[in-house]
Design brief:
Shape: globular
Strand content: 15-25%
Oligomer: single chain
Radius of gyration: 22 Å
CATH topology of the largest domain: Nucleotidyltransferase, domain 5
Number of strands: 14
Number of domains: 2
Helix content: 25-40%
Mean pLDDT: 92
Structural class: alpha/beta
Largest sheet: 8 strands, mixed
Strand order of the largest sheet: 5-4-3-2-1-6-8-7
CATH class of the largest domain: Alpha Beta
């Protein structure tokens, strides 16, 4: 019996997808539908050497899901013969709150909880739900599984996740640090342990997911003990368009000064800040580095702030962990920017982190160890693969469901 797992990551106007052979955990095809609902949507599909791109109207997420299914089963470019070969569908869900310590079968009760937590992730959970419902309509007879970005961080101790605000705000309104990018950090912890030839239960790691969204986690024995993102993905590091850490009183000050509502200030901090706001150039690190090489002072300053903030978090998490076996760089910037890695690691020699600059310049995508032989802490570059983690969880949970139904 075929056991293919379709992984869906749904945004408000996009669907990222990847099809896996669930038994072999092998990727068969991937792609994205973008600008859903616009006059000219974009569709991409890649399977082996086949790379299909087309621009045509995709009026809804249901239409996008149908296009994905048609392409996956197409006689010329498809990788499966029939949609019935889809064994299960896995969904990335950003916020699962405190209720989900791990991935879960999507039941009506679980969906209701995802809806409830939409108030904490209004830009993400509603879009995730749109994808879930569209996929359930297209694949009504297979298990659907939610894999939560927040689950991996639920192992944090109270001293790490509580804010120093009236405790009733936590008890009555769930105000606490949740953390995000958890599926990526979980993958990186497992992949780093494998690269080091050790069991994940025996290593201490600082995992750095540095892309347009950025977060760093302290991981001991495969469990998160602290992470940089907080109640929302706005807290922590400087990101592409997000400010990261700042004085919370600034929200009120900016509101009064600029005559903005609180929500408008938060949007400014989410969409017009970070690397974009500091540089005035872009949220793309490649363009910032180019501008800096041409003498742009604000681009240089944006890079320095970005790297300094990341370096501070690494130092803090070395303290939280009592040392580390490795620092792991991943995601768009972490995997592909030797310049950013050099600047982040600068000055950490006394803490046991010493880069081999030749290895650092050569490592683009990894996996690779870019530390010198004398470095007490290894420095790894490892491509993240959240979709593979989602596929693994989905196949495992769906297999358990099938066995239960057969019994």
């Amino acid at each position: 019996m075929k056991a293919h797992v379709l992984v869906i990551n749904c945004g408000s106007s996009s669907i990222k997808y990847e099809l896996f052979d669930g038994q072999a955990n092998l990727s068969l095809a991937e792609g994205v539908v973008e600008r859903i609902g616009e006059s000219e949507s974009a569709f991409r599909y890649r399977a082996g050497s086949r790379d299909l791109r087309q621009a045509s109207p995709v009026p809804s997420h249901d239409a996008g899901m149908a296009l994905i299914a048609r392409t996956l089963t197409d006689r010329e470019v498809g990788v499966i013969q029939d949609a019935a070969e889809v064994f299960a569908v896995g969904h990335r869900v950003v916020h699962g709150g405190e209720r989900f310590l791990e991935s879960a079968l999507l039941t009506p009760e679980v969906i209701a909880t995802v809806e409830e937590y939409a108030r904490f992730a209004p830009l993400h959970n509603p879009a995730n739900l749109v994808g879930i419902r569209a996929a359930q309509r297209l694949f009504p007879d297979v298990p659907h599984v939610a894999v939560f970005d927040t689950s991996f961080h639920q192992s944090m101790p109270a001293k790490a996740y509580l804010y120093a605000v009236p405790y009733e705000l936590y008890q009555e309104h769930s105000v606490r640090r949740y953390g995000f990018h958890g599926t990526s950090h979980r993958y990186l912890a497992q992949a780093a342990a494998h690269f080091l030839g050790r069991r994940v239960e025996g290593v201490r790691l600082i995992t750095c997911h540095l892309g347009n969204g950025c977060s760093i986690s302290a991981v001991a024995g495969g469990r998160c003990v602290d992470t940089s993102m907080g109640f929302t993905p706005l807290e922590g590091l400087v990101m592409g368009t997000r400010s990261g850490d700042l004085d919370p009183a600034l929200v009120a000050v900016l509101g009064e000064t600029l005559r903005l509502e609180a929500g408008e200030v938060v949007r400014l901090l989410n969409t017009k800040s970070g690397l974009l706001g500091l540089s005035g150039v872009s949220n793309d690190m490649r363009l910032i580095l180019k501008a800096m090489s041409e003498g742009d002072e604000r681009a240089r300053l944006a890079l320095e702030v970005f790297c300094y903030r990341a370096r501070k978090y690494i130092g803090a998490y070395l303290v939280a962990l009592g040392g580390a076996d490795a620092v792991v760089f991943s995601a768009g910037i972490g995997e592909n920017s030797p310049e950013a890695r050099t600047r982040i690691a600068a000055g950490l020699d006394e803490l046991g982190i010493v880069l081999d600059e030749a290895a650092n310049q050569a490592a683009r995508g990894g996996p690779a160890d870019i530390a010198t032989a004398k470095s007490r802490i290894r420095v790894l570059v490892i491509p993240t693969d959240e979709e593979r983690m989602i596929a693994e969880d989905t196949y495992r949970i769906a297999s358990e469901v099938r066995l239960w139904r057969e019994v």
